[in-house]
């Protein structure tokens, strides 16, 4: 954004995925303006019917991800001046997910795949037993820590070309969650996880293109987690046959 | 559409193909250096169990490896799903196996 540019030309997706279209809005430019600021300004000042989703506004909740100039981003932490194309912006709903309306996507397929990948807690103890002692220096804990800051924003899922071509593919976020839990000493689901990520939509479909890692707003590395799952399933594959 | 079994099969066949491909290239370079004629090449390959095993195992590995690779491409680009995808994989694999086996047998059988 140049210093004398005081108005943004913002194309915003309206409607659903099939019958929608871009609508242009003119928004006053401001210092330190985020994409979410722009969308909120449109909704509050130009068109109250604009649908979008956000909650925390500080990059914690993972609710506000959208396509910005064709790239998936967390909009509350994306400054307009860093992604401007001239004085133009294009804001669309996340790729690879059904659109409910305007910028709001249906996240059900994304979270259903977390469950399908066994990305849920498998307890090792009952509530009556003492809490497991965790060694923070262990290799497995380091692997678990590497993916634990995922905020479920679906940016990686939206960026993934394999998801785009293969609707059954579990996707980077679910697989990274599976790898995180696989390494968690407080989780007992290792076998269930390996089984879940070895199916027709599992980790072996990843082509290691790396879009997930490039676009993850928290700078996590789902591609590495998926590669580690491939190694773990390979070991398990031979172990079963020995 | 790639579970752990097909994934492993594709990787293992790649492991088989890699040294065989290098061996094939080495043989080709050797064959053209001295200007071996077709008759001279056939006199060495026909009746040889080693050349039959060398190129026969290559053909088996290729027919499995390529069919699995094509399965992934067809699923992701054309959207073909099971069971049609399974049938396509099998047909491509058998076709490559037939064509390859025919060529190998033609130069190794006496």
Describe the structure.
The complex is a heterodimer of chains A (242) and B (110). With 242 residues, chain A is α+β, with helices and mostly antiparallel strands. Chain A has two domains: 99 residues, Ubiquitin-like (UB roll) (Roll), CATH 3.10.20; 134 residues, Fumarate Reductase Iron-sulfur Protein, Chain B, domain 2, CATH 1.10.1060. Helix content of chain A is 36%, strand content 14%. In chain A, β6 and β7 form a beta hairpin. Chain A is elongated and about 65 Å long. The mean pLDDT of chain A is 94. With 110 residues, chain B is mainly alpha-helical. Chain B contains four helices and no strands. Chain B is elongated, with a radius of gyration of 17 Å. The chains are: A alpha+beta (242), B mainly alpha (110). The interface between A and B is medium-sized, with 15 and 13 residues.
Work out the radius of gyration of chain B. Answer: 17 Å
Low-confidence stretches of chain A: none
Secondary-structure arrangement, i.e. CATH architecture of chain B: Up-down Bundle
Structural class of chain A: alpha+beta
- The average pLDDT of chain B is 93
- Succession of helices and strands of chain B: HHHH
Order of secondary-structure elements of chain A: EEHEEHEEEHHHHHHHH
Q: Strand order of the main beta sheet of chain A, please?
A: 2-1-5-3-4
Number of strands of chain A: 7
CATH class of chain B: Mainly Alpha
Main location (chain B): membrane
Protein name (chain B): Succinate dehydrogenase
Keywords (chain B): Heme, Iron, Membrane, Metal-binding, Transmembrane, Transmembrane helix
Pfam family, one (chain B): Sdh_cyt
